[in-house]
C-alpha cells in the first residue's frame, strides 16, 4: 500500500530537484526526506532517483512513477477542494419528501427563495403521503407531521401543527354556534377518514383531554378536500391550520369552540443520525425555521 506522504515527498523532491529544497518547502528535516524516498523505493523494489554529489535525476522508472504521483496528488488536491467547497456552501442535490398537503402549500412555495440563496444546489422533492424509508430510498430528509418521530432517527422540531374546529359563517347562521363540546352531537361533523379516533374528536379543554362523539354526512381521506366542503357550508370539521389559516384570517371560516384546542402535533425535519450533517440539509432546516418563525405564519 503506497503511503500518500511518501508519494508527496517524492513528488516534491522531483519538483525542487533536491532533497534540501524539498525539506525547506515541506518544512521537515532533510533526513526525513531521504528516509521517505528510500522507503518508497524499497516498497516498489526499484530505484526512482539517481543521486550524486552534484545533481539529482530521475531514472526511467522514476520518471514514469512521478507522472502517476503528480496526477494522483492533483486529483487528491481537487477532491479536498471539492469537500472544502461542500462544507463552505451547500452543493449537490438535496433529496427530501413531504406530505401532499403540507408539501404543496408550504414546502414547494419555500423552494424558490431557498434555491435563490444557493444556486449550486439542486432539490429533488417528493410529494407523497407514503412513509418513506430514508436509508433504502436515499433521502437526505423527510418532513413529518406526527406526535412522536420515529426511533433511530434525528428529528428537529420545526413548527406546531394545530387543528381547529371550523365552519363557514353561512353554516353557523343556519345551524347555530356550538357553545360546549356536547353541542357537537347536534351538528353535522365532517370527518377525516385517516384519523385514528373515528367517530370521536379528541379535544383539550379546561379539564384536560376529552373525546367527544361526533357524526356527520360526509367523510373524506384528504384534509384539503374536506376544507372545501366546510367552505361550502356542509358542516363542521376539525382542520389543520396550515391548510385553512388564510380562510380563518379572511373570515371565510370561523373557529368554533376556541377554548377546546385539539392536542398538538408537530412538524419535524427527520434525518439519519450523522455527526457531520451535510450542509445542504442543515441549510434547508435553518431556512424553514426562519421562514416559519416561532409562531407559524399560517396561524
UniProtKB/TrEMBL annotation:
- For the keyword Transcription, the answer is yes
Q: Which PROSITE patterns match?
A: HTH_LYSR
Q: Which InterPro entries match?
A: LysR-type_TF_proteobact-type, LysR_HTH_N, LysR_subst-bd, WH-like_DNA-bd_sf, WH_DNA-bd_sf
Write out the entry's keywords from A to Z.
DNA-binding, Transcription, Transcription regulation
> One Pfam family for this entry, by name?
LysR_substrate
Residue ranges of domain HTH lysR-type in the record: 1-59
DNA-binding found in the keyword field: yes
CDD domains the UniProt entry points to: PBP2_CrgA_like
* PANTHER family reported in the protein's UniProt record: HTH-TYPE TRANSCRIPTIONAL ACTIVATOR TTDR-RELATED (PTHR30537:SF5), HTH-TYPE TRANSCRIPTIONAL REGULATOR (PTHR30537)
The family assignment reads:
Belongs to the LysR transcriptional regulatory family.
* The protein's name in its UniProt record: LysR family transcriptional regulator
Its lineage opens with: Bacteria, Pseudomonadati, Pseudomonadota, Betaproteobacteria, Rhodocyclales
Amino acid at each position: 500500500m503506497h503511503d500518500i506522504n511518501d508519494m508527496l515527498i517524492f513528488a516534491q523532491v522531483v519538483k525542487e530537484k533536491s532533497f534540501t529544497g524539498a525539506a525547506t518547502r515541506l518544512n521537515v528535516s532533510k533526513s526525513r526526506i531521504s528516509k521517505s524516498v528510500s522507503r518508497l523505493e524499497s516498497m516498489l523494489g526499484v530505484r526512482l532517483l539517481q543521486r550524486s554529489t552534484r545533481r539529482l535525476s530521475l531514472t526511467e522508472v522514476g520518471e514514469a512513477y512521478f507522472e502517476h504521483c503528480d496526477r494522483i496528488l492533483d486529483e487528491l488536491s481537487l477532491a479536498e477542494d471539492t469537500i472544502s467547497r461542500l462544507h463552505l456552501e451547500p452543493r449537490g442535490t438535496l433529496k427530501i419528501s413531504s406530505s401532499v398537503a403540507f408539501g404543496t402549500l408550504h414546502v414547494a412555495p419555500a423552494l424558490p427563495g431557498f434555491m435563490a440563496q444557493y444556486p449550486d444546489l439542486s432539490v429533488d422533492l417528493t410529494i407523497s403521503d407514503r412513509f418513506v424509508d430514508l436509508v433504502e430510498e436515499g433521502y437526505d430528509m423527510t418532513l413529518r407531521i406526527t406526535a412522536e418521530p420515529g426511533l433511530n432517527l434525528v428529528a428537529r422540531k420545526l413548527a406546531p401543527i394545530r387543528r381547529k374546529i371550523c365552519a363557514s359563517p353561512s353554516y353557523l347562521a343556519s345551524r347555530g354556534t356550538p357553545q360546549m363540546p356536547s353541542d357537537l352531537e347536534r351538528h353535522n361533523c365532517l370527518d377525516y377518514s385517516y384519523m385514528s379516533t373515528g367517530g370521536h374528536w379528541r379535544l383539550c379543554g379546561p379539564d384536560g383531554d376529552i373525546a367527544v362523539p361526533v357524526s356527520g354526512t360526509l367523510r373524506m381521506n384528504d384534509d384539503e378536500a374536506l376544507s372545501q366542503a366546510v367552505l361550502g357550508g356542509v358542516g363542521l370539521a376539525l382542520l389543520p391550520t396550515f391548510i385553512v389559516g388564510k380562510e380563518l384570517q379572511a373570515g371565510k371560516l370561523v373557529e368554533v369552540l376556541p377554548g377546546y384546542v385539539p392536542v398538538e402535533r408537530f412538524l419535524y425535519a427527520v434525518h439519519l443520525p450523522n455527526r457531520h450533517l451535510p450542509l445542504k440539509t442543515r441549510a434547508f432546516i435553518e431556512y424553514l425555521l426562519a421562514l416559519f418563525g416561532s409562531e407559524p405564519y399560517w396561524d
